[in-house]
Amino acid sequence: MKKLYFLLLALLPLTANAQVITIPDANFKSKLLQADTNNFIAKNLAGNYFKMDANSNGQIEVSEALNVSYIDVYRYYDQPYIATLTGLSSFTNLKFLRCSNHQITNMNFTGLTNFEELYCDHNLLTTINLTNYPNLKNFDCGANQLTNLSLINLPHLELLYCSSNQLTGLNLSNLSTLKILDCGSNPFTSLDVSSNIALTYLGCSELGLTSLNVSNLLNLEHLICLNNQLTQLDISGLTMLRDLQCPNNMIEYIDLSDFATGGPPNQGNGFYELRFNNLQAINVKNGHFDNFGMIAQGNPNITYVCCDESEVSMVQSYYSSAVCNTNTYCNFTPGGIYYTIQGNHKLDVDNNGCDNNDIAIPNLRFSITDGTNSGTIISNLSGNYLIPVSDGNYTLAPILENPDYFTVSPSSLSVDFPDTLSPLTQNYCITANGSHNDLEVVILPILIARPGFDATYKIIYKNKGNQMQTGSLSFEFENDYIDFVSASPMVSNQSENILFWNYSNLQPFETREILVTMNINSPMEIPAVNAGDQLDFMAVINPIPNDDIPIDNSSTLKQIVVNSLDPNDKTCLEGTTVSTTMIGEYVHYLIRFENTGTFAAENIVVKDMIDSAKFDIATLIPLNGSHSFITRINTNQVEFIFENINLPFDDANNDGYVAFKIKTKPTLVLGDTFSNSANIYFDYNFPIVTNTYTTTIQALSNQDFDFNSVFSLSPVPTKDVLNITAKESLVMSSVSIYNTLGQLVLVNTNPSEMIDVSGLQNGSYFIKIVSDRGSAIGKFIKE
Q: What's the rounded Cα separation, in Å, for the pair 445 and 662?
């Protein structure tokens, strides 16, 4: 009896090790028994495929189950279904389970806390307990009948597929490590992923979502949200996103400017699908080619597209320019990743190197080329420049209006992005070269001339030379038709039809302004002023002798009187006719704009296509603007960019303007015309096209009477003083002297009978005298 007792005790461990697991589902058990090294059903603890039924007894024993880390019983094609996984709880070392495409209705994983991957999609599950699985990384329960999913204490979960269930909600707030989520085709209508900042893939299609906030998902690469009711989707800042599939929604606007701009370059341009929405505006300015066909179809109401310059024509092939406004003006940097060249430009006044005490130079012109494409950037008034560029090798060089007057250091800059750190700062120091006197004056009609109303004029004068200047400035007007009201600064002196100001210490590159208000005669006054009448003005800045370019020491304005305001117009300040002396010389244009909308205009662009057969685009120089602006020139296209102008819409403050000068081509001849118009863009609206202003070239000899019948000149030739004798009683208002090239070399708006010509070089000259009888032109010789 004692021997039998000890024998039973010895057999107990063998009985425990040979304990058979009850697996009632024959199909499940059969699948496990099939596990072998030549298939992919099970792996041992070492991670190798192996035969689970080690003793080949047709049973799975506890000892055998403890050696299993991986089970894949995925149902393929016509294989039999598994209805229950009863018996699985004995596999306590199990880390991986795939049991997809069966008819399993319930799963109990009690004790299986080592799970890392669990795939039970496409079953008949109504409940599943997935609490406290600290090692679980991937979980797929899609295409079941789940109404609730508890996701508690899953600190390492990275993948969750739960689409095509009956879930009424989804709490993801504790899943901070989640990278991949597909929860589409469920009956809930709201989704909060704000805590899931690690997400790289989000699938939330067919949920009935009306809103979706993905602003925190900076790592997101794939967003699939088709067949919802989204009216807006903000993906700005999601630079890693390169797969966006959101067709069949109600989205009205989307910004794709950051789309596919992050991540490795070899990942390509990405893919998006936004067909069949309610898109009205879209931003695809992102620096790479966009397949706009995946947007255009099913979105017939798009009225604005912002895109890269290279894509404008492509977009316009889908939408006519009559129904869709297409441009690059949603921002003023290159699309996608860009780099910045910046710095300042100063005049070294004291010749000791540029420092903070030196003068900032406004509106400096830069040429920039990448070896294939070239353009021009003109900075604003601040004396600072900032040029954004895409990747590439660039050469940047400052260009002065009169390069002989100054030396620029450095003369050019070469830079290669992205190898060069951005932003790259390069300052430019400009020093005087020799001694050059060069003054300029321009008259701008800020407000229109209307009969009986006040009109405002801005007189702008500038020192273009390299020597400080002190002198005087005059402004002549037709006092019979116009009354002087006020000026700021106040006049130094005045006569009936001429206002005078003194100025001093005008530094090189410095510009000053004078505002003058005049009252225009009404049709009831004598003499009357009516719509269509022309008012003539002239401004002259002295000293003129020794000025390197005296032709711009005077400025004329021919202003047409109007009854009503066209708030967006263009004017050639020289008028509808100019003499042959203006061939190859500067003419001046003023473009005015007005915000007639109901909201402040954030950005305004004035775009001007210059006729390269009539004008020299290389000579275009911006003169003045109502607000800060920069200028971009590309071939014959010039853009005056008022970024962040925020122009109000109230009538007292809704006006703006820009003025520039440009030289006509020297190949023009008598009788030729030159015309110009502009497009004005207010934010995303269709451009407003200004009038086309046409100017005709006429002969200088046009005059009101014969010079020799009224005036005589002596001595001829003359050395120092030219005497003018009038044969009749008349009042001279101005005397202008031109060289044989037609260039203005001397102006006197307060003429006497003796004109000092001692500063003129020897040669032949034309003299034009304007009087109360009209104008006449004569000729004399200086020796």
A: 18
Q: How far apart are CA 324 and CA 303, in angstroms?
A: 4
What's the rounded Cα separation, in Å, for the pair 579 and 590? Answer: 20
Q: What is the pLDDT of residue 271?
A: 85
171-182: average pLDDT: 97
**Measured distance CA(213)–CA(463) in Å, rounded:** 56
Query: Across the beta sheet with 304-307, what order do the strands follow?
Result: 253-255, 281-284, 304-307, 325-327
Look at the alpha carbons of 103, 106, 111, 114 in this order and tell me if their dihedral is positive or negative. Answer: positive
Of 398, 417, 432, the residue at which a domain comes to its end is: 432
Instruction: Tell me, yes or no, whether 666 and 531 share the same domain.
Output: yes
Q: Could you give the CA distance from residue 341 to residue 368 in angstroms, rounded to a whole number?
A: 11
Residue 390 lies in a domain: yes
Q: What is the chain's mean pLDDT, rounded?
A: 91
As a whole number of angstroms, the distance between CA 300 and CA 312 comes to 18
Q: How many domains does the chain have?
A: 3
The answer to whether residues 737 and 616 belong to one domain is no
User: According to the model, what pLDDT value does residue 4 have?
Assistant: 40
How far apart are the C-alpha atoms of 767 and 773, rounded to whole Å? 16
Q: Is residue 158 part of a domain?
A: no
Decide if 291 is inside a domain: no
Q: Is the pLDDT of residue 265 over 80?
A: no
- What is the rounded (10 degree) CA torsion for 214, 217, 218, 219? -130
User: Of the given ranges (14-18, 279-283, 335-339, 560-564), which has the lowest mean pLDDT?
Assistant: 14-18
- Tokens at 692, concatenated: 């086309």
Do residue 750 and residue 769 come from a single domain?
A: yes
Q: What residues does 139 pair with on adjacent strands?
A: 118, 160
Structure confidence at residue 700 (pLDDT): 61
Instruction: Give every CB contact of residue 533 below 8 A, 6+ residues apart in sequence.
Output: 481, 560, 561
Question: Do 474 and 507 fall into the same domain?
Answer: yes
Q: Is 484 left (phi over 0), alpha (psi -120 to 50) or beta?
A: beta
Cα four-point dihedral sign 131, 135, 139, 144: negative
- DSSP SS3 for 2: helix
**Do residues 538 and 564 share a domain?**
yes
410/443 same-domain check: no
CA distances from 108 to 85, 89, 123, 165, 693 (A): 8, 8, 14, 19, 84
Q: Residue 747's closest CA among 531, 368, 475?
A: 475
User: Do 482 and 502 fall into the same domain?
Assistant: yes
What is the rounded average pLDDT of the residues 655-659? 95
Q: What is the CATH number of the domain that holds 633?
A: 2.60.40.740
Question: What is the layout of strands, in order, in the sheet containing 679-682?
Answer: 413-417, 392-399, 365-369, 374-378, 630-634, 637-642, 604-609, 679-682, 688-689
Residue 750 is part of which domain span?
707-782
Radius of gyration (C-alpha) of the chain in whole angstroms: 41
Domain limit, last residue, from 404, 432, 460:
432
Match 């898109």 to its residue by tokens.
Answer: 279
Both 621 and 724 in one domain: the answer is: no
Residue 602: other Cβ atoms inside 10 A: 14
Residue 587 lies in a domain: yes
Q: Is 290 exposed, middle or buried (0-12, 13-18, 19+ CB in 10 A)?
A: buried
Instruction: Give the integer Cα–Cα distance in Å for 507 and 438.
Output: 11
